[in-house]
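Service request form, structural biology core

Requester: graduate student, group of Dr. S.
Request type: structure prediction, single chain
Budget code: on file
Notes: please return the result as structure tokens.

Sequence provided:
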Amino acid sequence: MEMIPLLLFTMLCSGSQALDDGYQLEVQPVVWAQEGLCVFVPCTFKYPQDSQSSTYGYWYRLSRKPYNQKEELVASNNYWNSPSTKGRFQLVGNPEDGKCSLLITDVQNSDQGMYYFRVENGESVQYSYTKSTVFLEVTDLMKPDIYILEPLWPNRWGTVNCVFNATFDHCPAPSFSWAGPVLSTIRSHVSTHQPSVLKIAPQPQDQRINLTCRVRFTPQGRIFEKTVRLDVAYAPEDLSVTISIENGTVLQTLQNANTLRVLQGQSLQLRCVAHSIPPTRLSWTQGPLPQSPVLPSELGLLLIPRIQPDQEGEYTCQAQNQLGSQQVSVTIHVCCENGLGPRHPPSFWVSTAPERLYAAVAWPVDGLSLLCADTPTPCSCESQGSWTLVLMVIRGTLMGTGFLLTYGLTWVYYSR
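Core staff response, request fulfilled:
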């Protein structure tokens, strides 16, 4: 194959005409054909017509092996010479009129190579046009394309087109056929005048089923096919909300109504995701539907920077398209530090239901950790008095002293 580029360059530089004592032939020096398809090579020639004998034309293929110069007859109008190509090569036109076009059907990889034309007319005209050869380059197999120009709606008629991008001049017209489960019902119809056009009325259960278009040029020829999966329109489903804070930590992923408790000043990201065909329009609202105003969001992402107590409440994400809608809500409660000393990075706690608390918020205060747990204590930003703080510190000190006393007595008892 390394010799092919040099061979093509030599042919293109020498031109496609050969003139020798009245012999002349015009043909393309290089022809490309796709495997399994058909190719037409236009050709005309001239020769000295001094004899009344019949004119015969012959197309020969040269061996692709450099050490073997054997020539193979592939097409002729002389039926006494039977070519070995079984009718796939045809000499098109009458050589007596200077016509020498070549038609090749069901092109195969083994057809690639160099071809030349020869004319015979009695004893005086026997000439091979070896200066005007044709090189046939066979390319890879191509598949048809299936186009669905608009969404397929359940129980509505839609159009599916099968397109095969190839040139069919002087070649057999392609035949189209369809295959797939949707064709076994009355919900499909193939156009009589355009078999490449299919009308279908899919149902929701036809989602992701296979549909195949097949193309064939001859009854015994190669079959070209393409398979796609149908995308039938459906209402939004699998709606979920992921809630995270500014550092990317995911607090919760939910698909049903839920409650979330966060610390005042934290920045939240609420991302809403749903699946549907056609794509879902996502929107966020605050407060009960449908009177609530729509919040500014992009692609289902709602940002709440440095949340404050007046921003707590119910947030609802709604997914909607032409076939239906789905929504999910989250109730956010904002907790404050309640004047328990200097600000320290607190841990947060999340409640999956108003009746139960799964975690807690802890603030370090002078070496002590004040922990709120067990019950859903309401969040409040009202400052607590100093007596509350003193009592909490005393209580913690007493508990620590009791622990140390118990530990000391136990150690003395077992050390005796």
